[in-house]
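Minutes, project huddle
Topic: does the predicted pose make sense with magnesium ion bound?
PN asked that the exact inputs be recorded in the minutes so nobody has to dig through chat later. Recorded below.
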Amino acid sequence: MASEEDCSGTAENGFMLPEVKFTKLFINGSFVDAVSGKTFETIDPRTGDVIAEIASGDKEDVDLAVAAARDAFDDGKWPRLPGYQRGRIMMKFADLIEQHVEELAVLECIDSGKPLLVSKLVDFPSVISMFRYYAGAADKIHGETLKLAQELQGYTLKEPIGVVGLIIPWNYPMLMFALKVAPALAAGCTMIVKPAEQTPLTALYCAHLAKQAGIPDGVLNVVTGFGRTVGAAISSHMDVDKVSFTGSTETGRVVMEAAARSNLKSVSLELGGKSPLLIFDDADIDMAVELARQAVFFNQGEICVAGSRVFVQEGIYDEFVKKIALSSKEWIVGDPFDPRVNQGPQVDKRQFDKILSYIDHGKREGATLLTGGKPCGEKGYYIEPTIFTDVKDDMLIAKDEIFGPVMSLMKFSTVEEAIQRANYTKYGLAAGIVTKDLNIANRVSRSIRAGIIWVNCYFAFDNDCPFGGYKMSGFGRDSGLHALEKYLKVKSVVTPIYGSPWL
Ligand code: NAP
Ligand code: MG
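Predicted holo structure (tokens), as shared on screen:
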């Protein structure tokens, strides 16, 4: 880990911070102030300083955005364009994001605290390729031909579901934007996006690029603001046909309740996780150590699929503990603009305080602090990569999603025990398995109740690979062609065959 000085988060390493050009709501193709005229501050987690004042939307602004999206859906050309043409416009949108990637990546970095290189080399290439993937799918949305009894013939149409509300969190601001906006656009929906209050900058910038690409006014609206105002207004709106939400399990429940109390809109939820990483005795131990380190500390530990419960089989446990302790000391925390840095600051003070209070709780519960456990740097929201050993399954640090760089390390004996303890959680988002034994890999993969299982890898995402939750990690799949289905409705059309008793 970096020294105190390295971890101070003050160095800007020669980067010119960009001017923030887009700070207003994007409704019906124009940037506008909130009706109330109110704004809120988005802050730089390296320092706690204000980056910009952002328009703070409320119910009235959501009403305007929904009215624009409704018109664009009911009477506009986007849902009626041939899929091929929607795809071409989406390709242009992807090209524009690519052309502006330097500026976008810096904005994402100062707003969220993620390392600039990760943003530029991992997040944005995924965002761009995701728009291209769904652009290519836009003209491949097919129904079925039905051969019915009673001398009827029928077919199904897959139609866009309508106006969709897309509510996203702050840990992957642009990637979450792409995961939801790209399939919704491809399906022919119109939409209102609500970025997280902590990270509004890149979504607003992309709204401007969407207009340049030729996405018609009213199709993509961005309403910045808070969950209790903007988010609540979207999920309870009578004219919104679907909400696709990514965030915490608690808020997911509130969104679902609001949908149930209003117009019974369709809901899909990508929620929290407490994913297990299971390392077996036959594993390549160096590979396992590196996977574990990445699985918990990458993106400041602010990852829904983080492998935050690491189970190691007893034969290699002691060696693993030694190696992971050394390896976490080489994990550099510091200014996200510094190319040597692996881990930037946590997104904001609230998240920083929450993680530290879990660390305190872990110590009080009797877990042993192997490494880390403290904030670092003189300002900003930096936390050392932290590892606890002697963690019991019932401790809070083993049960709750901490959403920070905190690993719970546990020992197990048998494959059965590993499966049973891995499943001992209310969540079911992801799991990792490290073994050379195909029989163990196959057996454990099928026994773990989670939406994605990584064998001898972790965070191996691909546009074509669906992911989403089991249990209280939610339902509905992002990524892959499955995600398109969330934004489509199936309509059956039935007609009698000439000469049948119907005619
Ligand atoms: P959060 O508090 O649930 O917020 C997520 C979004 O919901 C934000 O835009 C938030 O607005 C909004 N929101 C808050 N209250 C709302 C309400 N009453 N109605 C409608 N929307 C409301 O989650 P977070 O702390 O930002 O993000 C971290 C959580 O997201 C973690 O639990 C993590 O596991 C989960 N996550 C899951 C996935 C996945 O794919 N499964 C991916 C990433 C993150 P504000 O701007 O006011 O916060
Ligand atoms: Mg911010």
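Observations noted during the meeting:
- The chain has two domains: 13-271+473-490, 276-455.
- The longest strand covers residues 152-160.
No decisions taken; revisit at the next huddle.
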